[in-house]
Write a structure and sequence with these properties.
globular; single chain; mainly alpha; 2 strands; 457 residues
Length: 457
Amino acid sequence: GLMRCGYCSAAGFLRIYSDRALPIDHNSSDATTSSYLPFESRQTHERVLRVLVAAAIALPDDLVTGLLVLSLLPAPFSFEMAAPLLALPLTNNERRAIMRRLVNLGLLSYNASLQLFTMHKLVRDAARLLVHNLGLPYNETRRRFAELLVLSARRLVLPLISKNRMLSARLAWSRLSVHAVQLVNWAFQEVREDMLPLYVSMAWDLMPLLSSSCSSYTLQGFCQVVLERAQFLDMTLESAQLMTVLGSLLAESAALKRADAMLRQALEYFWRELKGPHQAVARCYKELGALMLKAGKPSEASKHLQQALEMLETLYGGASTELLPVLQLQVELLRRSRKYAEAEGVVTRALGICGAAYGPNDVQVAVWKNQLAQVVRQAGRLDEAQSLAQEVLALLQGQLGSEHPRVAAQLMMLGQLAAQQGKQAAAEQTYRKAPQVCATRSVTSQLGACTVGNLSV
């Protein structure tokens, strides 16, 4: 196919195939399939992989980039799934042309009746090997792949999170997470100047996703090595972004003094470079407020969170969902300070924002309404809290079904409210409705607490 399409001559292909630097896994690329093959079959498997890797390297830039990024998709996949990943061509016709050329080469197969594409497992293995074992001759391919990986996460996963479609986001991220972890590991070997913006973008934009795939200590090390390189190159804004992310990770690990110094230095850098309201400055204020809250300094936490909120209101308006993370922290701060009336006002505002953005029956609305029930409960208005908790339960059952863990958690809260009101029989009855999936020791202990001396369990 390479020779027929004029992409490579026989001599050119053999030169690539015989290159000792060619990425290849001599221990078999996939232990689940090839490790149990006879020796001759394993040799054949390795040779086929070598041919495919050499073929991928021989392809033109647009095709090898397309091949690498399409290997991230589950099989089978449609053109609509692939198009957001193929970011370099500007039109759908160009994207279709790339996929059609890969089909002509045999690297993709196409089912016309279903309008679905499939990539053979060996081709996927070859793409994985090319990315995983890229040597110095293939650094440009590594950079392009990293760009497309970050772009894929931005276009596929982050929009799902912003729409509160968390399960879909987790499924989409599961296809990218292995390669993202690989990029993190590359940083410990070398942070080249041309890769630095990509690493900064990963840390700034994708950290919530990376946190689900890497340990906190690994991510702290990743941010530290990239930060050292950014500071060496005198990249002040990028350094401030990395300091903000690293400060947040340090706060989660209870290294509060280091986190405080890191975040304050980041804030200084941001003001020096941006000289005005900016989303990055607001994020730094928010992280500093969260840190002060964790450190038990409510007055400082309140000041920084208010600064973050005012800046976000200036940038996005008072009804933007960008305000919700800061409002959440404010509610936590006010509840800890026993300022329940103020906390109720903040929750009511957040409920209005969620209702306007997601609709009145969205799960996010249920989450905030549950927050309101908790605040009202702490204020001692148990009947009102019970009514709100019932509304939340109905919302969750309508959106998630009666067997979801969130429904079980809400039933537990209703049981606690009933027990707090002295309605022991109603509390036991509510606890027993919790789905089997969440019938843990906590359920048993709650049952015992509400029935001792009153009912037999």
